[in-house]
Amino acid sequence: MSAAVKLTPTARVVLGMLKLGAQTGYDIKRIVEVSTRFFWGASYGQIYPELRRLAAEGLVEAEAAPRGGIARTVYRLTPKGERALRHWLTSDDELIFEYRDEALLKLFFADVLGPDELLAHVRQARAEFQDVVARFRDIGAGAEEDIARGQASPYVALRYGIELMEWVSAWYADLERRLARGDALVEPKDLQSS
Amino acid sequence: MSAAVKLTPTARVVLGMLKLGAQTGYDIKRIVEVSTRFFWGASYGQIYPELRRLAAEGLVEAEAAPRGGIARTVYRLTPKGERALRHWLTSDDELIFEYRDEALLKLFFADVLGPDELLAHVRQARAEFQDVVARFRDIGAGAEEDIARGQASPYVALRYGIELMEWVSAWYADLERRLARGDALVEPKDLQSS
DNA sequence: GTTGGCATGTAACTGGTTACATGATTAG
DNA sequence: CTAATCATGTAACCAGTTACATGCCAAC
After folding, report:
1. Dihedral (Cα; A28, B124, A6, A49), 10-degree rounding
2. What confidence tier does B71 reach under pLDDT thresholds 50, 70, 90?
3. Which of B15, B39, B96, B162 would you mutate first to test chain A, the one with the most A CBs within 10 A?
4. Is residue A5 helix, strand or coil?
5. Is A150's CB less than 7 Å from nucleic acid strand D?
């Protein structure tokens, strides 16, 4: 009974993408860019070294598979890698959640700003988050076919992303509307007893 | 006319906290922990070196101010630091937004899980996000006084955090309810044409 | 007397991005 | 012919966390 393999952050997405059918490091990167990028990224500088580590540990198998004159290495999960992926997916270790938000940091310090400066900031934040929503929607177009092929979960994750960013956009749009009307940042009626 | 100083990520929160009244590196850390931590952290390993860099650049002034036998250095913003803070707050550079979410990554790969494994995951995610809401609420208790003193914006940022995490919790709670009822991850009626 | 808070600091490590370099193949 | 895409890889850098070390003071 080998001790459970603890996957590095990058290994999680690498093994998962191999399971979903990615074959090369290039493949993994390409798929990540149009799917998990917004909540779990991976760069070449991470992927290639990680694939080697995983091969050394026996979680993946490498096979040279040149396409014409282009060097190409195809990877696939070994049974051990398959188990490690499932183990991670079903473990109840505390889930990583990282959130870094400069718009919110500026808002936090906004008491030093004048009303028009504050409004300009809120406007910018609203616009940027709306752009994110638009990009998510583009990705979503075409996801419906995957569901027919039994891959519902990527679609669900995408829906989550779209709805979350919509919520954020709406929050800023609401604040923008109130500030444009001349309201204070916090009206007495907003105060809720917790 | 000195070229505009580009603030490092940590400098942004350090200067901001000095403006809000923090005096020492220890102060900054303490305040960050109960306020911006969830969307903009800072560790000692960042704060102390950063304060020195800022002093070297003339954005802050250091003064030895021991308390009894405890060595203590008090920092305050120089006019140049004041300007750099305002410049950052009013600039329209693209806002940093980073989001890393392991719960969502697992959901993305969840097609390999059985219904009960999926439900267990969703349950865990819902529980963890509810805990975050609870922690935010604790911080919120007592924030009302600050508003009376004209510091509305930290309160607004906190409200944002609470409401965002409530939204996330509710999203998972809804999914959990549907899965517990035996629904598929995506019901045909969920499919929206974008 | 010992715990907890105040206060400062650093070394080692981890994780990740960016930029660069190389080169074949395919489509226009 | 040339631009885009496929494919692999590395070096340099940046940011950040964790763990450790030190030591005073106040409260219990």
Report:
1. 20
2. confident
3. B39
4. coil
5. no
